[in-house]
From TrEMBL:
Signal peptide: none annotated. The chain crosses the membrane at residues 15-40. This is 1-acyl-sn-glycerol-3-phosphate acyltransferases. Residues 94-202 form the Phospholipid/glycerol acyltransferase domain. SMART domains: PlsC (SM00563). Pathway: Lipid metabolism. Keywords: Acyltransferase, Membrane, Transferase, Transmembrane, Transmembrane helix. GO terms for molecular function: 1-acylglycerol-3-phosphate O-acyltransferase activity. PANTHER family: 1-ACYL-SN-GLYCEROL-3-PHOSPHATE ACYLTRANSFERASE, PHOSPHOLIPID_GLYCEROL ACYLTRANSFERASE DOMAIN-CONTAINING PROTEIN. CDD domains: LPLAT_AGPAT-like. GO terms for biological process: phosphatidic acid biosynthetic process.
Length: 270
């Protein structure tokens, strides 16, 4: 897997070119989703194997394409990126928790973690461009129900890797992330290990309610940093489930606030 840091000091492309490249990227993503739904996944369904094997094929296909999509955007000059610690992602029963500053955070994480499960917006199952991939991959729709929580727990107990964004939606620019307690409750019931991933986008782009064509004045850089593992049982043993869930959620919240604040500190002069 190509994880080499993209050059940060390359000459910046013109604003107009980046706008056109961004439009092309969105067009490619939409057409790719339709192609997967109408052509690729029906063909994959004809291959031998049970439902689990078909799910694994779909997830592997999506992951492979997502990472190629990231590489395409980098090659076009839309963004640069660096990833630290990706080799520690993708373990059985691992729950990957990340903050959510941009629309394409999930593309990065699914692209990095082959065959991972993911909790996604429920609306993606009715979107004509995304419902084919999310349905074939059997991702979990975040409808806020107990069934959603139970499915997430079951996937971890089954040995799957689960990607989840505890905020439930993208972070407001300039605001600290605010986590819902559902992710912590899922982790306490099913995760073997929790692995936090801090995502920073500079300058901000594709935030909540921001149209795709409102691109920043300079090229965007995505930084993904995999943190140290967290043992959910260390919190589960501290009391009743509601209390343990609250303590774990507070711990995760404070962890991300600290990590993001450190990222924002200016470098010291030598």
């Amino acid at each position: 897997m190509e994880l080499a840091t993209q050059g940060l000091n390359r000459p910046r492309d013109a604003w107009l070119w980046r706008l056109l490249a961004t439009a092309l990227s969105f067009l490619l993503f939409g057409l790719g989703g339709l192609c997967l739904r109408l052509l690729v996944f029906p063909l994959l369904a004809c291959l031998p194997g049970d439902r689990q094997r078909q799910r694994e094929r779909a997830r592997h296909t999506i992951s492979w394409l997502f990472w190629r999509f990231i590489r395409f955007m980098a090659a076009c000059g839309v963004l640069t990126y660096d990833v630290q610690g990706a080799e520690r992602l993708g373990r059985p029963g691992q729950m990957i928790i990340a903050n959510h500053p941009s629309l394409i955070d999930v593309v990065f994480l699914i692209g990095l973690v082959r065959k991972s499960n993911c909790v996604v917006k429920q609306s993606l199952f009715s979107n004509p461009f995304t419902r084919g991939p999310v349905s074939s991959a059997q991702y979990i729709g975040n409808d806020g129900s107990m069934d959603m929580l139970d499915r997430a727990v079951a996937s971890l107990q089954d040995g799957q890797t689960l990607v989840i964004f505890p905020e439930g939606t993208r972070t407001e620019p300039g605001q600290a992330p605010s986590f819902h307690r559902g992710a912590a409750a899922i982790a306490l019931r099913g995760a073997r290990v929790i692995t936090p991933v801090t995502i920073k986008v500079d300058p901000t782009t594709l935030t909540k309610c921001e149209p795709w064509y409102r691109i920043p004045d300079r090229r965007v850089h995505f930084s993904l940093r995999v943190g140290a593992d967290i043992d959910p049982q260390a919190f589960a043993s501290q009391g009743p489930a509601p209390r343990a869930s609250r303590q774990l959620n507070d711990h995760l919240h404070q962890y991300f606030i600290k990590e993001l604040a450190e990222d924002e500190q200016p470098p010291t002069e030598p």
